[in-house]
Amino acid sequence: MTSPTAAASAYASISGLMGGAAGGVQSPLAAPKGGGFGDMLEQAISGFAEQGRQTDAKAMEAISGKGDVVDVVTAVAESELALDTLVSVRDKVIAAYEEIMRMPI
C-alpha cells in the first residue's frame, strides 16, 4: 500500500519528466497561492481596525473644528458596515465550527 506522500512525490517526478506538460497543474503538497483562510481573516481584521482609526481621526477633526460633519457621518456609517460584516463572518465561523463538532468520528 502506498502512502499519499509517496503518491504525490511520484506524481511530481512524473510531472517533472514530462516538462510540465500537465498544463500548470500544481502539486497537491504545494502551498496555495495567495495565502490561506487565516491570511484573509487577518487582513480583514486589520482592515477593520484601520477603518476604526480613520473614523476616530475624522471625528477628532470635526470636534476641533477642522473637519466636515458629512465626512464624519460617512466614516461612522462605513465603520458600522464593517462591524456588521465582521460580526457576520464571526457568526459563520462559529456555526461552521459547531457543525464540525457535531460530525460523527
Provide a descriptive summary of the structure in words.
- With 105 residues, this protein is mainly alpha-helical.
- It has two domains: 1-30, no CATH class; 34-102.
- The protein contains three helices and no strands.
- It has helices spanning 4-17, 37-63, 69-102.
- α2 packs antiparallel against α3 (69-102).
- The chain is elongated.
- The model has no long low-confidence stretch (mean pLDDT 79).
- GO terms for molecular function: cytoskeletal motor activity; structural molecule activity.
- Keywords: Bacterial flagellum, Cell projection, Cilium, Flagellum.
SSE topology:
Blueprint: H1 4-17, H2 37-63, H3 69-102
Task: Supply database-style keywords.
single chain; 105 residues; mainly alpha; elongated; cell projection; cytoskeletal motor activity; structural molecule activity; FliE
Order of helices and strands: HHH
Q: β content, as a range?
A: under 5%
Helix content: over 70%
Task: Count every beta strand, where a strand is a DSSP E run of 2 or more residues.
Answer: 0
Instruction: Please count the helical segments.
Output: 3
Structural class comes to mainly alpha
Short description:
InterPro entries: FliE (IPR001624). The chain is an all-alpha fold and 105 residues long.
